[in-house]
Amino acid sequence: MDRLPRGRHGLSPEFVARNQRERLIAGLTQALYEVGYQKTTVSLIGQMAAVSKSDFYKHFESKDDCFVAAYDDAIERIREQVVTACEATGEREWPYRVRNAIAALLDLFSREPGLASIALVEGLRAGRGVYDRYQSAVESFVAVLREGAPRPQEGTEVPEATDEAVVGGIASLLGRRILAGEAEQLSELFPEILEFTLAAYLGAEEARRIVSAG
Amino acid sequence: MSAMRPELPREFVASHKRRRMMDAIAELTAEGGYEATKIADIVRRAAVARKTLYDNFDGKEDLFLSAINATVAEIRDRVEAACAEADSAEGGIVAGLEAVLDYVAEHPAASRMCMVEAISATPSSARLYDAAVRDFVDLFRNSAPEGSDLPVTIEESLIGGVAWILQLQIRRGEAERASELLPELSQFVLSPYLGVGKVVDTGRRK
Hints:
heterodimer, A: mainly alpha, Arc Repressor Mutant, subunit A, Tetracycline Repressor, domain 2, 2 domains, elongated, B: mainly alpha, 9 helices, 72% helix
């Protein structure tokens, strides 16, 4: 995020404050991605955001306070991306909704590996307070997936835990790839993740048909 | 107490003490988290001298990591033994899954330590968690039924999904009922291979 011009700029104090806060969140996210949690200091965050240390403390009490804000912000942006993609599907069937949602998710992650990392790796590593946030973020995607999912055919049943296991499985796979330093290549997993997701509801053959039809 | 009390072999006593310290850290981290668990609490819970702890381990983290390693090794052994007894790939997966769920139900604190606390306690414990997941992915890959053209990441996604369901169950404080998840989770992990909603025989052998 670009820093604001120095000196007189006629920008309102509220605008400047909001802009600083956003830059600090972006700075922390990037610092975490580049050097990890331990080495991410308030000075480094300020440096990356081009915000002074004293201004940092006007917005956040501590590094952890900034971390939690950045985490909430990341989840909100991811959710927005996924919901927008689902809405853009319009009246088309559930598999297309899922396809668009997964594509949008991976696209965002590939463009912003730091965002992917805070959401799927650092959040889990941060301990009890943030783990609850990670869990409720996963739950919110479960709701997106469940909406409009095909009802089981007669005589069979899709197990109750399926939605949660699918979303948890995707989150775990992506987290492991990010840890392996492959955050920028997450988009390449698109066909695999789509097939895994659809297969849990429609069976492997039907899933493969939809994935290869594009 | 009788003066004739028989003396237990020294190695037996030593390994029993190690076991008690590992159990104690599992219980304490499950109750209050790794950060809040102090050496003083551990030695009190294990009923050993502080010196005994330092004779056996470098400190709290070393004890924690040793306890995680011991638990993961035990779960692996049980899974491998269960798989080996089965007469089909499908049966092996169900038996292996059953072994994991039964372990979680019988050892809620140790399971929480490995599957929940390890992830956020220290960088080394997070690495142990990741390595354990990788091991179980390999184990699953080697035992899975033949599935033509499934995505190469399928095992990672399935194991990740099972781990997530177990973490939710543990965090809800319902680890003791983990075995009840067997029918659902068996279907979930086998559906890519056998089809959705196929009835999976989980006839428990106990």
